[in-house]
Amino acid sequence: MYESEALTRVKGVGKKTEQLFQNMGVYTLGDILSYFPRNYERYPLPTTELEDKTGEYIAIEGIFFTKPLSRHFRGLSVTSAKFTGHGVELEAVWFRMPYLANSIQTHMPYVLYGRLNKKGTGFRIEQPKLFEPTAYVRLTKTPQPIYSLTKGLSNKTVSKVCKEALNLCLPVSDNLPSEIKNDRHLPDRSAAFRSIHFPESEEDLKKAGRRFTYEEFLAFFLGQTLHQRQEAKYKNQFQIEKTDLMNQVKENLPFALTDGQESALRDVLRDFHEEHVSERLIQGDVGSGKTILAFLCMLAMAENGYQAALMAPTEVLASQHLSTILNLIEKYSLPFQAVLLTGSVTAKERKSINAAIASGDAKFIIGTHALIQDAVEYRNLGLVVTDEQHRFGVKQRMSFAEKGQHPFSLVMSATPIPRTLALILYQGMKVSVIRDVPSTRLKIKTAVLEEKDRKSGWRFIYKEVMAGHQAYIICPLVEESENSAGENVTDYAENFRKVSKGTMSIASLHGRMKADEKNRVMEDFAAGKIQVLVSTTVVEVGVNVPNATVMMIENADRFGLSQLHQLRGRVGRGQDQSYCILVNSSSNDRSKERLNVIKDHNSGFDIAERDLEMRGPGDVSGVRQSGDLPFIFADLYTDHEVMNAASEDANRVLDQDPDLILEENAGLRRLAENGLSEIYTNL
User: Fold this and answer.
1) Whole-angstrom Cα distance, residue 668 to residue 683?
2) Cα–Cα distances in Å, from 8 out to 1, 17, 25, 152, 329?
3) Which pLDDT does position 393 carry in this prediction?
4) What whole-number percentage of the chain has pLDDT above 90?
5) Per-position DSSP letters for 516-534, written without gaps between them
6) How many CB atoms lie within 10 A of CB 382?
7) If you average pLDDT over each of 93-97, 467-471, 632-636, 671-675, which comes out highest?
8) Contact at 8 Å (CB) between 123 and 91?
9) How far apart are CA 518 and CA 481, in angstroms?
10) How far apart are CA 678 and CA 346, in angstroms?
11) How far apart are CA 506 and CA 504, in angstroms?
């Protein structure tokens, strides 16, 4: 009812607070329903023993027996006080919180909660939270939501606004028929929204997470299967008889195609001669040569008089694809025109590009979502290549079919998936897997460093930059958060500038920047104007910068193995030896074991298999947003049973109602067409 209304509908939210929420992509009450906690705080009961708990988050009840003291050290305010409980003494330390010196009372009972560290022969907790003992005991009974924040917004404020939004907006419409919810023991969508934000128990949280996980998988399978069945209705109208030019280019490349590339190319050419048009997924590891394969397939279409389009997730990546294709056209004297269509082209350029597409003069058409706008009319579109499958929904890819003769579709994915899971995820879909990488590609040397050794990583970056190369530094956070002690892009970039003393050109990049600002930074980095790029994982699907030879990943223990491998793939794209430095911020042996998997393996498929072995079913831990597959909650490794159930249900529903036209399946139809954007309003 109120989902489309502004956040100012909530009492206490003024224009300033509304702007802060908008900085996080939250504009309406409906948006904040989908602004899920990124994690949950699970408060333990107070401990009476500190030995063997170093590095863990603990709670301890006691009193402050010294008055808090605030002092400044190198421009940073530090507040400290001595605390005792159950005969154990420790030091509590806070940074940038001088007001605590006047608010903390000595000899009054408190519960301190924070990460326990050793200091000499004693103990110390930095940035501990303070609670009244009775209130703390209440907190231990339920998981407490932790939200991603922006500067100026506290977790308490986001939580309060979210609670009010739930009261105003619920109940919401449900996409799932009652039969499915009953059979799979899934809660209503409204109950799931409330429990995912404010669970009353671990069981409630698990049920809500299962509901959204199931819905994501179901949307994926419905969309994929519906798309495949519709494709099967369309006759192949394309006559692919000539491949002389394509073979000539292939034979004259400065390298020989790998066995995997050759096999995938044969698969696609075989598709071109079948009775019906089809979609094929090309699954290849980082650096396996999917781009040259896509070019050869596009060239086969162009050689026979048809157009081929390549849709990329970002303008920078689309521009790089155009540059690659133009270089190949020039190098091999190919008689074809290539154009680039993105949202930022001028009106005059757009008119000229659209005319070249409509006339058929442009055979290679590269762009972003702009390629499926109503104003774009294709002449003889025979093939659509989408780069990075997870960035586009089924509905967007189907939009191309409405613009031409139902073209062939080629989807390129750099996400290696264990075979046992891939058989479920891509059932019924044509899949080609490129497992090998070109022999000319040097393996990336990977090292694991502890936080105390970080400066040696910085020195190595300096050495590589002074040798004429570039580097990435990845941080998990955009800016300092009250809920996380992880490294953040904003402060890290500033600190690194101070440390480097102007010897290097350093810039930052993160998802909250405006699109044109992000594009400008990425273009400058690709052009060599920026030597060190401090970024969040937005570079995971990024630019091709052959001159970048080092990637340093802070708090690497917080990332999934597949995502670390994807990030590492941003370097090693040139002829020079490249390196990846993983900074481990955890003292947990399991974290070290996981990071050593990345250190010891360069094959994404091997890493995916090890990841599957090491991970078992886990509790809901908030929004994953790993970026490597089209899901926010669902996790292939821990949720494969739910994935199997959703796959079975999608097939059963479509067998009974092939086009999802029955009234009771209206919600499922929307899921199939819109994917995650149907489930979460702020996508």
Assistant:
1) 18
2) 15, 9, 15, 17, 54
3) 57
4) 60
5) HHHHHHHHHHHTTS-SEEE
6) 28
7) 467-471
8) yes
9) 22
10) 32
11) 6
Q: Other CB atoms closer than 10 Å to residue 171's CB: what's the count?
A: 12
Cα 214–chain centre separation: 19
The terminus-to-terminus CA distance of the chain in angstroms comes to 19
Specify the 3-state DSSP secondary structure of 453: helix
Question: Do the beta carbons of residue 583 and residue 457 sit within 8 Å?
Answer: yes
CA distance 607 to 227: 31
- What confidence score (pLDDT) does residue 627 get? 43
Q: What are phi and psi of 143, to 5 degrees?
A: -65, 135
User: Tell me, what's the pLDDT at 273?
Assistant: 95
State how far Cα 211 lies from the chain centre.
21
Task: Look up residue 584 and give its DSSP letter.
Answer: E
- Which tokens in the block code for residue 22? 């908008």
- Give the pLDDT score at 628: 47
User: Per-residue pLDDT tens for 113-148?
Assistant: 998 988 888 899 999 999 999 999 999 999 999 998
| pLDDT at residue 350, rounded to an integer | 94
* 69: exposed, middle or buried (Cβ count in 10 Å: 0-12, 13-18, 19+): exposed
**From the centroid of its chain, how far is CA 527?**
25
pTM of the predicted structure, to 2 decimals: 0.78
Which residues have CB under 8 Å from 485's CB, separation 6+?
115, 126, 127
Tokens of 260: 């995997």
Residue 393 near residue 631 (C-beta atoms within 8 A) = no
Q: How far is CA 525 from CA 327, 542, 581, in A?
A: 20, 11, 20
Q: How confident is the model at residue 629 (pLDDT cuts 50, 70, 90)?
A: low
Tens digits of residue pLDDT in 24-36? 889 999 999 999 9
- Residues recorded for the chain: 683
Q: Which of 221, 147, 192, 217 is nearest to 633 (CA)?
A: 217
When the pLDDT of each residue in the chain is averaged and rounded to a whole number, the result is 89
Distance from chain centroid for Cα 566? 10
Q: What is the DSSP letter of 126?
A: E
